[in-house]
Amino acid sequence: MFRSLLTLSVAALIGVASAHATVRTESGLTESAAGKSEVYRLNVPTEKDIATTEIRLVVPSGVAISRFQVLPGFTRTVTKNADGLVTEVVWTGSIAPMEYARFFFQATNPAAPGTLVWKVYQTYSDGSVVRWDDTDPATGPASKITLK
Ligand SMILES: [Cu+2]
Fold this sequence. Notes:
Elements: H1 2-14, E1 22-25, E2 31-32, E3 37-45, E4 52-58, E5 64-68, E6 75-80, E7 86-95, E8 100-108, E9 114-124, E10 129-132, E11 143-147
Parallel strand pairs: 2-11
Antiparallel strand pairs: 1-3, 3-8, 4-7, 4-9, 5-8, 6-7, 9-10, 9-11
The protein binds copper (II) ion.
Copper (II) ion is lined by residues 19-20, 47.
């Protein structure tokens, strides 16, 4: 708890949210444009003293992922819908304590302005799952990208 509070205040000072699993644009923004081809990055820090072993990303509807950056050490599985769009991505691998991993992918945004809500589920080696899906927005916020 103390570490979370400390991280929050430091993040507020430097204007960067460094903790939590987050989806941002490649340059770290929470804003993009409707219909644009964008590179996103999913940042996953291990915040326990055991390793993260699996990360599941739920892709907002209307987002069309076309490419993933190679990330040695991780295996990726995707689920697609009837239209061939990637709806879920699961990465398995290991993010040790005091480490973070960044997963980059290229996607085309939906044509209409709005808010993309990215839900992330982070599994640790003891089987516990941390939900970044707004089930509890205070402790487990989902990432939002505003499309203008
Ligand atoms: Cu955090």
